[in-house]
Amino acid sequence: MTDDTGFRSEGRALQLTAPENGVVVGVPVLIGNILVIPNKTADEGETFVGDTSGVWEVPKFAGDAAETDQVWAQGEAIYWDAAESKFTKTAANNERVGIATENAAQEDETGTVRLNGIAIDTA
Fold first, then answer.
1. Average pLDDT, the chain
2. For the chain, what is the domain count?
3. What proportion of the chain, given as a percentage, has pLDDT over 90?
4. How far apart are CA 36 and CA 28, in angstroms?
5. Is 27 left (phi over 0), alpha (psi -120 to 50) or beta?
6. Is residue 6 part of a domain?
7. DSSP codes, 6-58
8. Same structural domain for residues 44 and 75?
9. Do 66 and 99 form a contact (C-beta atoms < 8 A)?
10. Is 114 exposed, middle or buried (0-12, 13-18, 19+ CB in 10 A)?
């Protein structure tokens, strides 16, 4: 819905078309240059709503408990690794997409992130 100013929505939830291989509810997916969390499972070409921001429990890189490269601290910058479809605190070759909202141990397979809701560079 558009008002007289041209405003259409807050932009937190976007109506999108599922890409090749579709999308799965709750599984982060990159649509063009925006990372979203689908609110339903949709086959390729179907319409779905994807959330661009908010606080989510997401898949993260896990590792040996003796290492510390994937220990997340509350408030720490978090990045999207498109090659692995996981979140990481490693900045190199990845795009910043949010901040950790809770601490996560090295061996944890999920972490809690507040998504920024901004377009990322996929080039």
1. 89
2. 2
3. 65
4. 6
5. beta
6. no
7. -----SSEEEEE--TT-B-TT--EEETTEEEEESS-B-TT-EEEEE-SEEEEE
8. no
9. no
10. middle
Cα separation values, 1 from 14, 38, 120, Å: 13, 21, 26
Q: Residue 34's domain spans which residues?
A: 11-52
**Any domain includes 25:** yes
Question: With DSSP H G I counted as helix, E B as strand and the rest as coil, what are the percentages for the chain, rounded to 5?
Answer: 0, 40, 60
Phi first, then psi: give them for residue 119, nearest 5 degrees.
Answer: -65, 145
Q: Provide the residue-wise pLDDT of the chain in tens; the chain has 123 residues.
A: 556 787 777 778 999 999 999 999 999 999 988 999 999 999 999 999 999 999 999 999 886 666 668 899 999 999 999 888 999 999 998 999 999 999 999 989 999 999 998 887 766
pLDDT of residue 17: 97
Q: Which two tokens stand for residue 52?
A: 């661009």
